[in-house]
């Protein structure tokens, strides 16, 4: 029996609000084994972080609410938007899929077991976790994690000169 070969899903964007990539990463707590979860969305064209939230759990309901708020805040509801993600439970949840349909967003997912199909989100996580300000001993509280991510996002969008967009900031693009 032949194995089905899956072709990578690739999207390009010639302007903002065309293709977004999103993922969830764990932020360590000072309590061993406890995590906070950062949901983050980035625009492929500008590399701008268009939405983010930190929660104590991963869920499709929280993801759907974040998508709704991000689309409205960025003014993308009139654009044909593609949302790319990996195959995590929150990304594939029925609640999120229904919200994407309601918002007229086309969902796209990475190939199973191919870690670099969501490279934009993974690259953003590397930047996040390797900045000198990263609290290597973990976050004391959910509030501390949220405040740190707020500061990081402002820096990333307004100050960080991104190599993938000719060394301008995401907000300038």
UniProtKB/TrEMBL annotation:
Database matches in Pfam families: rve
Listed GO biological process terms: DNA integration
Boundaries of each Integrase catalytic domain copy? 12-173
Q: Which domain of life is it from?
A: Bacteria
Supply one GO molecular-function term: nucleic acid binding
> Which InterPro entries does the UniProt entry name for this protein?
Integrase_cat-core, RNaseH-like_sf, RNaseH_sf, Transpos_IS3, Transposase_IS3/IS150/IS904
Protein name, UniProt field:
Integrase core domain protein
Source organism: Tatumella ptyseos ATCC 33301
């Amino acid at each position: 029996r032949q194995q089905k070969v899956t072709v990578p899903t690739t999207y390009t964007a010639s302007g903002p609000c065309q293709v977004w990539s999103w993922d969830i990463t764990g932020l360590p707590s000072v309590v061993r084994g406890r995590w906070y979860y950062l949901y983050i969305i980035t625009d492929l064209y500008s590399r701008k972080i268009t939405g983010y939230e930190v929660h104590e759990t991963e869920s499709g309901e929280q993801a759907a609410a974040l998508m709704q708020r991000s689309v409205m805040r960025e003014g993308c509801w009139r654009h044909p938007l593609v949302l790319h993600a990996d195959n995590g439970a929150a990304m594939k949840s029925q609640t999120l899929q229904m919200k994407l349909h309601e918002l007229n967003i086309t969902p796209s997912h990475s190939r199973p077991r191919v870690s670099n199909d969501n490279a934009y989100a993974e690259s953003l996580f590397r930047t996040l976790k390797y900045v000198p300000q990263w609290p290597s001993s973990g976050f004391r509280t959910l509030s501390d994690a949220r405040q740190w991510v707020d500061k990081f996002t402002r820096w990333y969008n307004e100050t960080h000169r991104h190599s993938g967009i000719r060394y301008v900031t995401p907000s300038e693009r």
